[in-house]
Amino acid sequence: MKREMMTWAIILTACAIIISIPLFSSQVIWGPDLLFHLNRIEGVKEGLLAGQFPVRIHPFQIYGYGVPVGMFYPDLFLYIPAVFRIVGVPLELAYNIFLIILNIMTVYLTWYGYALLGKSIRIGAVSATLYISFWYIFINLYRRAALGETLAMVFFPLAVAMTLYILYDDAHKWPLAVFAYSGIIQSHILSSLFLLVVILTINIISWKQLLDASRRLAVLKIILFTFLINAWFIVPFIIFNQTMDINIKSNVSIFHEFDIDIISLLIIQLTWGILTFVSSILFLWLRFKTTLVGTVQMKRIAIYMFSGAIFCMYMATGSFPWRVIEAIPIINKVAIVQLPIRFMEVASIGLSFCGALAITTIFERVPHRGKIFLLSTFCISICMFNLFLFTYSSFQDMHLPYMHITVNELQSRDYNGRTDYLYKGMDAKDIDECNKTFVINNEYRNITVYSFLKNGTLILFSYQAEKKSTVTLPMFYYPGYEVKINNDMAVPIGENNRHLLTIDLPCGYNTVLVKYVGLPLFQLADFVSIISIIVFLLFSFKYNFP
């Protein structure tokens, strides 16, 4: 068994590397969301260098004036490329290396989750292969540069597998569900909403399993620890979302305008996703005409997953009654998903698992000595074929849209989401105006500044004033800034009509330190998360997870 696991570990690593071949470049592949996510990486890097931890105000964007992206968009995994940047790795290389790491994580976590659910390392391995080479993952990686959704899809198969495993098998594996749920929460808000709907649906369908006291207790532990471990992000997110009016709240899209017709989706599935499609159809045929590998219970679960995948594919198309739903109050909030095609994120999980059951069933009939060799060869071939098919049909002459981008260009170039997290009403003109006024503004002209140092969200300067003065600093005001005079006395802070931070300074010669520390409730949430992680790890070691 150990020898076979090692063999599959090598094969799946090779599959991840094959899928990552377009990333072996000194340039990045352009996508509509690319510049936004590169700015996020630089924002986390500059925030760390400014002494923030966790980074909640990104000081890189908007010419250093700071944007609260970290309050609204989870950044935890961006600390990896941010650290690469701190130690001197070029931005484009740091981004590509990060995506390669994500691909490797995807195959291993999918393998582990589906191996447990299917009670077979081969089912898990084939599931991981079909999943990592699924066309929607390619869309996110190489067409949209949708880093947040790509991150969430790393953990989604494990999250679904562990939800089912806890309900139908071993409830003691609940820490793995907490790990997977937390990974999604720290990756992408919209995917977290998908996760919530999927979990509720599974629990409703499996309500009889919850009659068991141990499973109910496991579910309660999952809910409690998932919230407490992620409180450091959830609490600031809720507070800022309720109290701060930003542009993205008013950017309401017409959901049905971004749907795809069902014929187009079928064409995509029959071209980019032909192998997954064929294996899924094969699953249905084997399910009702012959014997699939696995237990009766697992086969029943697979039917539920296949049905859910088909329904999600239907929801991704314009044939689903989105126009009717958009006209219904409260329910029309589903438009926050923005793109119906995002439902393929959930569909890919069921299609991959069901396809793996069919393929594994066929290869189980091969004589023992050649079984693993043929199945592993098949897995590598799937990745090579799907990547070739996608790049050949998506990009003319297979030339991917590589681009070179410098750090200086990031701040000046316009991109999707550049103004989304600014105060409502602020636009690109306000950003350019900020760039022109990147100096301390003495409103009363009775103050002399002797030194001025700005490092991200940290400002340090000395001044001489004959009387009390008010100055405006080159950063946007957000609740949580702290200003101290001579590293001791705190002074009042406020904002002007352009949302720039203002402070009232006493007379005399003084030194001023401005930094972002967050609200006291944020610091309490940080402490709660740290303690919860320690307790969670103790539980995990108790159950001896590999």
List keywords for this structure.
alpha+beta, 546 residues, 5-stranded antiparallel β-sheet, Immunoglobulin-like
Uncertain regions spanning at least 5 consecutive residues: none
Distance between the termini: 15 Å
As laid out across the biggest beta sheet, the strand order is: 4-5-11-7-8
Beta-strand residue percentage: 5-15%
| Count of distinct strands | 11
Query: Remind me, CATH topology of the domain at 437-521?
Result: Immunoglobulin-like
Largest sheet, in brief, is:
5 strands, antiparallel
**Mean pLDDT over the full residue set:** 84
CATH C-level of the domain at 437-521: Mainly Beta
CATH architecture of the domain at 437-521: Sandwich
Count of discrete alpha- or pi-helical segments spanning 4 or more residues:
22
Rounded to an integer, what's the Rg over CA atoms? Answer: 26 Å
Silhouette: elongated
Output the structural class.
alpha+beta
Query: Helix fraction?
Result: 55-70%
Structure description:
- This protein is an alpha+beta fold.
- It has a domain at 437-521: Immunoglobulin-like (Sandwich), CATH 2.60.40.
- The chain is built from 22 helices and eleven strands.
- The strands form three sheets. A five-stranded antiparallel beta sheet has the order 4-5-11-7-8, with no helix packed on it. Strands 3-6-10-9 form a four-stranded antiparallel beta sheet, with no helix packed on it. The chain has a two-stranded antiparallel sheet with strand order 1-2.
- The model has no long low-confidence stretch (mean pLDDT 84).
